[in-house]
């Protein structure tokens, strides 16, 4: 049986795309308090079903698939540029294909403006109207507005006309940054990308006898299963060690591990890998916001996904990737050594190497050393940075990692940084090994 919270989210998902949603409207339609309606709307926003825009309200939007996550909706553009919607509110849910900067004569500009575009332009009323007739939305820069005729036409065509106080160059940079951030998000592998869905997941109910575990074990060859109640909420996990030497008629509830660790669809595989290594877990249940089982994720699939990610070229570079891509190994018979040039992006506001970059260099050096020893990868547990001198912009530093201790599951590393022969940094790392 579904909860009231789930019923409200289901109701919101059935509302027409582009429609406005209010707390009072949802509370009245579902006969719940405004507080309950508000919480459900916020959950729907997290799930990508609605978007809240200042001075406009909350609107129903189409949930994006990962393959087009880098495309922005007009509603997102309004929030990015802190804009005001002058007209065409009903079209805010639409996705824009590209944006065009209108810094040329009208005839030349309109060769580039097509349906689904966003034209970024100043207070040129005639251009606003022509763009709308072409099927493009309009973003007016410099804090200007537009004519009543343009607003009326925008409402008729359901194409947004947005005004922002920022100049054209700043607006273009802000939208580019947002698209770039979306590209980085697209490349991050989440549980949702690799989970085994519910219809392919084997699980046990709390009242099932141990003999049912044995049947599943013979059928699948697996030894770990989530345990759920009648509403599919995850209540426990059961493994071979729990049922060993127990009577076949004993119910699973008596031997299961209660309140197991679970993850949701939006958890990154890096976080899942850390949990699995740290806790020694082979299988994790994936649940929704109500802790209902929607699938499982295995250690094998997580590690495979991590290896695939490391091999693939990335379109959107994070700061970490900018730093690690500039690390070059130096041929040295005695020890493993890396060099890196300190660029402006790696420094703090004082022009010296940032603490975050130092940590990244040390962890990456330890990772590369482990790969050279064919020992797989590492998950950082602890890093103590106990010596650091300022390193200024455009310096070159050497990174010297050293294995202090290594076991089957743990490793301890010492990493030193040198500039022109002088030691400028030293840290001690402990990590879990992933083989």
Automatic annotation (TrEMBL):
Leader sequence residues: none
Xref: InterPro entries: CBS_dom (IPR000644), CBS_dom_sf (IPR046342), Diverse_CBS-Domain (IPR051257), DRTGG (IPR010766), HotDog_dom_sf (IPR029069), Ser_kin/Pase_Hpr-like_N_sf (IPR028979), Thioestr_dom (IPR006683), WH-like_DNA-bd_sf (IPR036388)
Pfam families associated with the record: 4HBT (PF03061), CBS (PF00571), DRTGG (PF07085)
Keyword terms: CBS domain
CBS domain location: 256-318
Descriptive protein name: Transcriptional regulator
Species in which this protein is naturally found: Shouchella xiaoxiensis
Lineage summary: Bacteria, Bacillati, Bacillota, Bacilli, Bacillales
